[in-house]
Amino acid sequence: MTHAHISTWAIALILFVVALVLQKSGKAKGAKIVSMILRVFYILIVVTGVQLLFKINITGEYFLKAALGIVVIGLMEMISVRTRKEKSTVVFWVIFLAALAYVIHLGFSL
Fold first, then answer.
1. Which one of 23, 42, 83, 97 has the lowest number of neighbouring Cβ atoms within 10 Å?
2. Residues 37-46: contacts with CB under 8 Å, at least 24 apart
3. Contact by Cβ (8 Å): 108, 65
4. In the predicted model, what is the mean pLDDT of the chain?
5. Can you tell me the distance from the alpha carbon of 103 to that of 88, in angstroms, rounded to the nearest whole number?
6. Residue 13 burial by CB count (10 A; 0-12/13-18/19+): exposed, middle or buried?
7. Rounded Cα distance, 29 and 33, in Å
8. Can you give the pLDDT at residue 110?
9. Please, are residues 78 and 14 in contact by the beta-carbon 8 Å criterion?
10. Tens digit of each residue's pLDDT (9 = 90 or more) over 13-52
């Protein structure tokens, strides 16, 4: 299950970058398709994460990682939507990168 979880978030990060590149290059239809696929991966990340959470002895750090993981997914979606609407995303990028780094650190250290 760990392999599935890591694979889904790795693919989701790649799809996130692809969607943003397509949007910036003016290919809105392609970006929309990739965004829809990315949303399916958000669901897969949450499902595999919940399965992993219930297979272990749960502590507060695991709940923190789960909550921050949901925040990272939310920030990815907010960055994607605000980029589509051509609004500023600088603050969201800073929070996203910090939260992503901390979630990855927690994930590999727990």
1. 97
2. 38/12, 38/76, 38/80, 39/77, 41/8, 41/9, 41/11, 41/12, 41/15, 42/12, 42/73, 42/76, 42/77, 44/4, 44/8, 45/5, 45/8, 45/9, 45/12, 45/69, 45/73, 46/70, 46/73
3. no
4. 94
5. 24
6. middle
7. 6
8. 82
9. no
10. 999 999 999 999 999 999 999 999 999 999 999 999 999 9
Residue 3 has, within 13 A of its CA and on its CB side, a CA count of 0
pLDDT at 1 over 90: no
Provide the residue ranges of all domains of the chain, joining segments of one domain with +.
Answer: 2-109
| pTM of this structure | 0.91
Taking CB atoms within 8 Å and a gap of at least 24, the contacts of 84-92 are 84/23, 84/28, 84/31
Q: How far apart are CA 37 and CA 60, in angstroms?
A: 32
pLDDT, residue 59, reads 85
Amino acid at 38: L
